[in-house]
Design a protein that fits this description.
Helix content is 27%, strand content 30%. It has 193 residues and is α/β, with parallel strands linked by helices. The protein folds into two domains: 37 residues, no CATH class; 130 residues, Rossmann fold. Strands 3, 6, 7, 8, 9 and 10 form a six-stranded mixed beta sheet that branches. A two-stranded parallel ribbon has the order 1-2. The protein is globular and about 50 Å long. The chain starts with 9 loop residues before the first strand and ends in an 11-residue tail after the last helix.
């Protein structure tokens, strides 16, 4: 929000406590963000009542719970478990919510497990195109651990697989590219113009 002028961020969070933390963080950083307490998988009516109408936003950025329940032990803390472990319907529900509120030509940017990329591509096949996929590697010798994906509602361009982003160098320090991105000196390769 600090890097892009003229945006009006609306944050959606299911947990009231985390919503309050987000509000305080926005105030502390002089960001005029609206924070809504809302389940992303809520009905269109609940979204509209909160001010998020169908076909009304330009960009959705999301970090859905993505850990595979069959391979990840959920936290005994219920709120943490909801935030980290994906149910069978999580991915489709979150993407459906994004598709509903995005304008035609709007962009969805999301993170997911690299080993679940087939599921993401299948879910995005309904209503999205012009995908850009950025693999994220812990280090140059390791397979990707995450993928960042940008998808355009109604997009028709072919899918583009970008060169991977390596987070750490051989000495296990942040790579120069990762440091430049985090410092705001360089955009992510899939950043919107």
């Amino acid at each position: 929000a600090k890097r892009v002028a003229g945006i009006k961020p609306v944050l959606v969070e299911i947990d009231e406590g985390l919503s309050e933390l987000a509000r305080a963080n926005a105030i502390a950083n002089a960001i005029a963000a609206e924070v809504l307490v809302l389940d992303v998988t809520s009905t269109a009516e609940k979204f509209a009542a909160a001010g998020l109408l169908p076909d009304s936003v330009d960009v959705v950025q999301m970090n859905p719970p993505f850990n595979d329940a069959s391979r990840h032990r959920a936290s005994p803390d219920g709120a943490r478990a909801i935030a980290h472990v994906a149910a069978a319907e999580t991915l489709d529900g979150w993407i459906h919510a994004a598709r509903r509120i995005l304008k035609s030509g709007g962009n969805l940017v999301m993170i997911w497990r690299a080993d679940g990329i087939a599921d993401v591509l299948a879910a995005l096949g309904r209503g999205f195109g012009s995908l850009m996929v950025l693999p994220i590697h812990a280090d140059a010798a390791s397979p990707a651990i995450r993928v960042l994906i940008r998808a355009t509602k109604g997009g028709r361009a072919p899918t583009c697989l970008l060169a991977g982003l390596v987070l750490n160098d051989e000495a296990d320090r942040p790579s120069l590219e990762a440091k430049a991105i985090l410092a705001g000196e360089e955009p992510l390769p899939l950043a919107m113009p």
